[in-house]
Queue: 3 jobs
Job 1
Amino acid sequence: MPTTYYLVLSFVLFLIGTAGVLLRRNALIALMGIELQLNGGNLAMLAFSRELGDLKGHVFAFIIIALAAAEAAVGLAILVALFRGRQTVNLDEATLMKR
Amino acid sequence: MTFNLRLIPLLPFLGAAILMLFGRKWKRDTVLIVAAGAIAGSCLVAFDAFFTALPRAAAGGGLHDVVGTWIAAGSLKVDLAFRMDALSGLLCLIITFIGFLIHLYSSGYMEHDPDYPRFFAYLNLFCGSMLVLVLGDSLPVMFIGWEGVGLCSYLLIGFWYTSNANADAGKKAFITNRIGDLGFLIGMFLLYQYTGSLNIPEITAAAQGGGALMQPLWGATVAFWAALFLFVGATGKSAQLPLYVWLPDAMAGPTPVSALIHAATMVTAGVYMVARMHAVYLLTPGAMAIVAIVGALTALFAAIIGFAQNDFKKVLAYSTISQLGFMFAGVGTGNFDAGVFHLFTHAFFKAGLFLCAGSVMHAMGGSGDITIMGGLRKKVPWTHGVFFVCWLAICGVPFFSGFFSKDSIIGGAFGTEIFDAAINPLAGEHLAWVGKAVGVVLMLAALGTAFYMSRLYFLVFSGSETRASDEIKHHIHESPGAMVGPLVVLAIGAALGGFIGLPGGLLDHPEWNLLADRLRPVLGPEMEISRAMEIGFMVGSVVLALGGIGLAYLFYGGGYREPARKFAAAAPRFVQLVRDKFRIDELYGFLIIRPVKAIAKGIFFVVDRILIDGFLVGGLAWVVDLVGSIARWLQGGDVQRYMAVFAIGVAAIAYLATQPMHTFFSNALKVTVNGLTVDVDAHRGSIAANRVLDYSFDFDDDGKPEVTGVASGAHHVYPQPGTYTVRVKVKDPSWGTSSTLTQKVEVR
C-alpha cells in the first residue's frame, strides 16, 4: 500500500484527537483525544520509517508510546485530584488559570 | 543725558518681590516699611530727576537710561530703555507721590485685613508697572507697563476673591481691557510698518517729517488708522465709550485701589498715551475729532448716569469716567497741556474724594449706600473738610484746581484751530463744527458734574440727621491718623494744584503757567485764545458750577427735599433707567456676550465634546478596550480555549512554512532595464533561502515561459520597445505550493 494512505489515516486520527481535545468538555475524553493525537503522530513516524527503510522512526514511536503512558498517568492523577477538589471533571469549570 | 531712571520702577518692583517672597511671615509694620519705603525711594529719585537733572537736559530729549537690548531681530531692535521728559516726569511725580500717600492711607484702611502683605505687594507691583508705562522709551516697553497695570488692576479688583462678584468684576475689567489692548497692538504694528521704528522719539520725528505716515491706507492715511487704533487701546484702559463698563464694577476692589488705580493713575494712561503720541495725532484731525467727540460724549453720558447712583463709590466711578472724558476732549482738540493739566489736578481731587469715600465707609461700617448717610459733617470733621475742598475743586469753583484745568479744556475746545480748514491744511471742511460741538457738550457735562457731586456732598454730609439704623449710627467715628494725614495732603493739592497752570496769557505773565512752560519742549506751544473768549468762558463755567451746586441744593440740601421726590415721582421710569446705567451692560450682554457664548458653546460641543472627548480620548479608550476585551477572551482561564489558539497558531505556521515565501515578504520583482535588455531577479526571503525552488519566467505574458530553472534570476532581450508584463511563477516542489509575481516593464 502506498505511504500516502498511512499518512492520510494518521492526519485523520490527529484531527479527530484535536477535535476531541478542543470540543469535549469532559476531561477524560480530552485525555483520550490527546492519546489519539499521539497515535496519529506514531502512525506517521512508522509510515515514513517504512517508506525510507530507516529504523529511527520505530525508535521514535516507542519513545512516544512511553511518553503517552507517562502522560496518561499524570493526566489521570490530575483528573482524580480535580474531581476530589470540585466534584466534577468538566473542563469549563476548571478555570483556575484565570486568576 | 543719562540718568539712573531704572531705579524709579525698580524700587517698587523689588518691594513687591520681597513682600511676595517673605511678607507673609512679617509683622505688619515691617511690611509697611518695605512697601512705603520702596515707593518713597522711588518718589525721591523721581523728584531729583525732575527738579535737578531734567531742567539741565530738557533740550536734548530729556533724561535717558538704556538697561540693555531687549529684542534684536533683523531690522527690529527694541531696547529696554527709559526716558524722562517733562510729560513722563510729571506723571512720575503724580504716581510716586500719590502712590506714597495711598500706601500710608492703606496702612490704616487695611489694618485688619489678613492679606495685608499681599495687598502691599500688589500695590508696589502696580506702581512699578505704571512707572514702566510712563517712562518706557518705546511702544513695546510702554506696553509691558500697560499690561502690567492691567494685571495689577485685575488682581486688586478681585483682591477679596472669596466673593464671586469681586472675581467677576476683575475678569470684566481684564477682558474689556483685552479688547482695547488689541487696538493698541494694531496701532503699534502700523506705526512700525510705516516708520520702521518702535522707538517713541523716532516715531515722533517721523511723524513731524510727515511723509511716511501720510501715505494713503484703507481710504484714509496711515496716521489716521494708527491714531485710531491706539485710541481704541486708550478707550479700554481709560474707560471711555464704548469700553467704559468695567470701571464702575472695578469699585469692588479695596477703596485705596479705587483711588490710586481707578482714579488717579492707571485710567489716565490712555490720556498720557495720546499726549505722548501727539505728533501722530496732529497729522490727522479726523482721528483727533473722534478722540474729542468720544471724550465729550463720555463726559456727559457718565455725568448723567452719576445723577442717579446711590453707591458712594459708584458715583465717584462715573465721575472718574466723566473727568477722563474731559481729558480726552482736551487732548483731542489739540489742547494737550490742558488735558495733562486736568490729569494732574484730577489725580489729587479724585484720589482725595475716593479716600474720603473709604473713610466714610469705614465710619459707616463698610456700607457705601448714600441713601442711609446724611449729617456726617460733624461726625467725621476731617473727612468732611477734605471732601469739601475736593468737591469744590471738581465742580470748578474759582481758584480751586479743577477750575483752572477744566476751564482751559472748555476754552480750548471753542478756540481750537485744529479743525479749521483755513488754518490747518490737514483738516477737511466737514470738521469745522467739531470744536464748538465738543465745547457745548463739555459745558453741559460740567454742569452735570457740579450737580451730581453736590448731590453726593449734600446727601452724605449735610443735614442734621443720619438716615442709618441706630446700630450703625452708634459706630460712626473719624478715621485714624494714618488715613486722615494723606487726606489732608491731597486736599492741599486739590486746593492749590491749579496754580501750576495759571492762565498766563490772560494775566500778561505767560511764564506764570509753570506747567505749560515745562511741557512746551515736549508738547509744543500751548493753545492761545483771545482774552475776551477766555474771560467769557471763565465766567460761564463759574455760572455753570454754581448753577449745578444750587440746583443740587434745591433737590438735596440737607437730605432729600420736596423737588427731588417730586421729580422721582413724575418720571419714575426715567429715573430707574438712569439708575440702571441706561442698561448698557444688558445691551452688551445681549449683543456681544450672548453670541460669543453661543459660539463658544458650539465650539465646545464640536471640538471638545465630539472631537477631543469623543474621538481622541474616547476613541483611544475604545481601541484599548477592544484590544483588552480580545486579550481578556484569550486569557479566559479555559484550557480548551488556549488549546484552540495554540492549534490555530500551529496551522498558520505550517501554512506559511510551506509557501515559497515571495508573496509574503516581497511582492516586487527586482527588474533592471538596460535598453532592450531586461534582468529580472525574483529574490527569495531568507526563511526559504536554502530551499530548492522551480522558477519559470514569462517575459511577455503569453503563457509560454521563456526561461525556466532553479535560478532565481533571468535575462531577456526584447525584440522591440514597448510595455510588457513580466510574470514569474515560483514553485516549491517538496510541498507542491506555488505563487506568481508580476510586474510591468517599459523598454525603449
Job 2
Amino acid sequence: MPSNTRSNQAHYVAPIDETPLVAIDSVKADGKPTNLWTDAWRDVRKRPMFWISSALILLIVIVALFPALFTSVDPRYCQLSLSNQGPGDGSVLGYNRQGCDIYSRIIYGTSTSLSVGLIVTFLVASLGIFFGALAGFYGGWVDAVLSRLGDIFFSIPYILAAVVIMSVLSQYASVWTISLAIGIFAWPATARVLRAEILRVKNADFVMAATAVGVTRLRILIRHVLPNSIAPVIVITTISLASAIVAEATLSFLGVGLPSSTMSWGNDISQAQVDLRTNPQTLILPSIALSVTVLSFIMLGEVARDALDPKARAQR
Amino acid sequence: MAGYIARRLLQAIPVLLGTTFLIYFMVFAMPGDPVVALFGDKTPPPQVLEAVRERYNLDQPFIVQYLLFLAGIFQGDFGVSFSGQPVSEILAVTFPVTLQLAILAVLIEMVFGITIGLVSGLRKGGIFDASFLVVSLILISLPVFVVAFVAQFVFGIQLGWFRTTVGPGAPIQDLILPAIVLATISFAQIVRLTRASVIDTGGQDFVRTAASKGLSRRRIVPVHILRNSLIPVVTYLAVDFGVLMVGATVTEGIFNVPGVGRTLYQAIIRGEGPTVVSFVTVMVLIYLVINLLVDLLYAVLDPRIRYAK
C-alpha cells in the first residue's frame, strides 16, 4: 500500500510538480495521414509499367466502346475476290480467307474479349468474395463446408469444365453463357486468397475494439474486416480478367466458344489455322491483339501486387 | 507422417465424389434432352443416341444414374467413344505418348526455369533479372495456341528444323517442339517462383550463419539456398499439372501428337459430347491423383508440414 493514499480519495493523482514535463518526439500533426492505399498510390505512380498498362487499357476500352472511331470498314462486308490479299488499297493489314478486312475485325472483336473478361471477373469476384469472406470470418463448420466445396471446384481445371458446359449448351452459346461457364469454376482461387487474408485480419485489435463497442458481427465483417483484407483480392482479380480473356479465346479456338457469327479474336484465330502456311498474318495479327490486351492486364496486376504486398515490394 | 497421409487421403474422398458428381450434374441435369444437346448441331444415328442413353442409365432416377456411373469408373469403365471404342482402350494407346510429352515438358521448364530463377534471385535488380522479368511477363500473356502456331510457323515451316506434325509412331525427337511449346506455359511461373523463393531464403539467418562460418559461395548456393528454395516450386508442380492438361489438349491438337490431349481436342472439334465427358472425367481423376502425390511428396520434403496440426 503506498503511504500517500488517503482514505477519503477514490483515486490518487500525483501533484503536477511530481511529473516533470519532457519534450516528447515532435509529431507532424499537419501531415496527411497515410494508409495502405495512399502508400500504394505513391508507389504506383512512380512506375512506368503502371502508366504503360493504364494507357493500353484505356485505349482498349475506347476501342471496345467506339470501334467506329478507328475504322470505317464494315468487318462483316467481305468480298471473296479479295481473299488473302495483302495490305494496300484502303486496307491497313490486308484481308483474310473470306476477304474480310483483318484490321476492322480486330477492332470490332475487342469488345467481345473485354466483355467476357469483365463479366467473368465480376462473377469470380462476387462468388469468391462471398464464399471466401463467409469461410474466413465465421470459421467452424461454415469454413469446413465452403472450403471443401471450393476444393471440388478447384480440382476441375476451369477450361476443361467450360469445355464440358459449352458442349452441352452449344445451342445457347453467347457472351453470357461462355462467361458463366468460365466464371463458375474460376472463383475458388479468389475465395482462398480472401479467406487466408481474413484469417489474418480478424484477430486484429480494431476488430476487438469494434466488438467491444457492440458492433454486430455482420457489420464488423463488412465495415472493418473486408476493407482491410481486400488488397490481395484486387491483385488476383486483375489477373483473372486476363485469364478470362485467354479462356474465351481458347474455347473459341477449340470451337466450343462463341458462335462463328460473333466477332471474336479466338474465332478469327481458329478460322485462320488453315492459312498458316499461305497467309500467316491472318493468324498472327489477331493473336498479337489478344496478347497485348492480356499483357496490359497482367502488367497492371503486377504493379498492383508490388504496391499492395509489402513482401513483393521488398523483392523488387 | 502416417497421420498426415491418412488425413490427406480422407480429404481426397469428398473431393473425388464431388468432382465426378459435378461433371455428371453439368451434363445430365441440364434442361431439355441432354443426349441430343451433347451432339450440338449434329443429328447422330438413333443407335448412337440409344447407346448413350443406355450407357448413362438415363431411365433411372438421377442419383442412381450417378452412382452407376461412379461404379463404372471404379471398375475402369470410362464409357465408349463416339466410334464405339472403349475409352480405356484408347487411353492405353494414347496415354504413354502424352506422358512422354508431359515429362519432356516438365523437364525443360524445370531445368531452364529453376536455373534462370536462381540466377535472377541471386542477382536481384541486375540486368539479367530485369530483362527476364519482362520476358516472363510477356510469356505469361501469350496464350498457348498462339505460342504453338508461332513455333510451328517459325521453326517448322520457315526454318524447317522440326516437323510440323508428329503423327502416330513418330520418334521421340519429334516431340521436342511440342514439348517446348507446352513448357513455355509454366516456364515463366517457375522462374518467378524460384526467384522469389531464392530471395526469401537468401535473407534467412542460416544463410548468414553459413557465410560467417566461412563456407564458400559455391557451397552455400546449391546446398543452403537452392535446396530450401525448391519447396514452393515442387508444390507448384501440382497446380502445373492442371495447366499442362489443358495445354496438352491444345498443343497435341495443333501438332497432331497422338496422345490423350489430341483425342479430347478432336472430340471437342467434332462435337462428340459423350467422348468429351469421358475424357474430361479421366483427366480430372488423373489431376486429383497427381495432386495427392505431390502433397505427400511435399510432406517428405518439408518437415513443417509433417508435424503441423
Job 3
Amino acid sequence: MTGAHVSEEQADEFAIGAMEPEIAALVALHVNDCLPCRLIVAESRRVTAGLALSVRRARPPRALRGRVFRETGISRPGPFTWAARIATAGAGLAAVAVAVAAFTGMVSIRGQVRDLRQENVGLQTQINDALAQDVAIKAVTRRLSEAERLSSEIRADAKDDRALLLAILSPESEIAEVFAVDESSAIGRFVWDREQQRIWFVASGLPARPAGQTYQLWVNAGGRYVSLGTFNTDSAGFVRYQTWAPPTIESSENAVVTIETAGGVQERSGPSVFVADLSGFR
Amino acid sequence: MIMHAVVEGDQVAFAALYDRYVELVYSTCLRILAEPAPAEDATQEIFVRLWRKPESFVPERGRFLSWLMSVARNRAVDELRARGRRRRREAVPEDDQDLLATIAADGDDPEQRAQVHEEQLLVRKALTGLPVEQRRALELAYFGGLTQQEIAVRLDEPLGTVKTRVRLGMQKLRRALQDRV
C-alpha cells in the first residue's frame, strides 16, 4: 500500500491473489472503508475475471443443480426446469398431437371402412334384390314357358280335336266302334278319314301302361296286321291317337290294340285290348 | 438486474442466475482444483452462499461477473490450500491452441452466452498475446493460488522479476479488456 491507499499495482496483486496473505488482509480491510481504493480494486478484479473467462469451459453435472437447490431450500422450479417442463410438455403435446392425428387417421380410415361396408351392404342388398328379381323373373318366365307349352299343347289338342271333329263330320270318314276284349269299362272309336288319309283312335277308361309297356295299334290288311304306331293314355285314361293311313292299305277287316313292349314291335305278339270291326268300311 | 431479484429472495431469479453462470464458476473451480468432485463441491458452496448472503455482492464495487469470478477463484484457492496439496498448474496448463479453441455456445441464454463467449475469446487472445513468462506468472497466481514470493521460488526467479511480470501482464490484459468484462 502506498501511504493510506491502494495503488493500481497493489490492486492487481490483490485481485489476482499474488499478494502475501497478511498484506492482502490489510488491503481488504482498507478497501471496505475506502471507496476510491475499492474502485481501483474493482477494476483489477474486472481484469482478473477475464482470466477466469479464459478457462476452457466444462459443463457441470446436472445433478449439481438439484444439490444446490436442495441445499438452498428452493422448491420453485427455475427457468431451466420450466424450460425442461415446457419442452417435456411440448414433446408430450406433440406426442398427443401425433397420437390424435394417428387416432384421427385411424378414425377416418375406420369411418371409410364403415362407409364402404355400409355401401357394400347396400350393394349386396341390391344384388340380392336383383337376384331375387332375377329368380322371380326366371320363375315367371318358367311359368310363362310352362303356360306357353300348355297353351301350345292345348292349341295342338284343340287343333287335333278340330281335325277329329271335322273328320267325324266329314262324309268321307268312316267310324267304327271299338270294343274292349275284356269286360272293362273302356270305350272308343276308330275313325278313318279317307280324304285326308288320316286315322284316329279315340278311347276313354283305358288304363295307362306301366313302364316298359305300350299300346300298339294294328290294322289287318289281307290277313296281315300292319302296325299303325304306339301310344299311351293320359292320367285320366283318355287317349286320342292320330296317324297317317298307309297308302298301300285300301281296306282292312279289323283293327286291334295290343299291349306290347315299349317302343313297339314289328309283329303283334302281345294280348289284345281293343278290337274294332272295319268290315263295313268301303 | 437479476441480483436484485435474488436479494429479494426470488427463487426463479436465482435459478436463472445459476443456469447462466454455473458453467463459468464450475470451469474456474475445476481449472484450479483439477478434479470434478471438489470443483462441484466448491461450486455448490459458492451458489448456496450467494443465495443465503446475496448482499455480499455490492454493485458499486464492480460488475457482478467480475465479483462472482473473484469469489469462485478465491473459494477454489481456499479449498486448494485447505487440502494442503497445492496443485501447481504452472506447467503450461493450456496451450495457445486450447486457449483459442472455439467454445461451444450451448448455454440457455443465447444473448448472455454470446456476450460471455465474445469476452472469453477476447481474454484468450489477450493471454496468447502475452509473453510466456508474464502469462505463466499470472496463471500461477490466479489459478495456482501462489503468492508472488511462492512464484519466485517456484520459478527460481527474483521476486522483483515476478512482480514486474505480474504488473506488466495485468496492464496488458487491462488494455486488451478495456471496457469489456
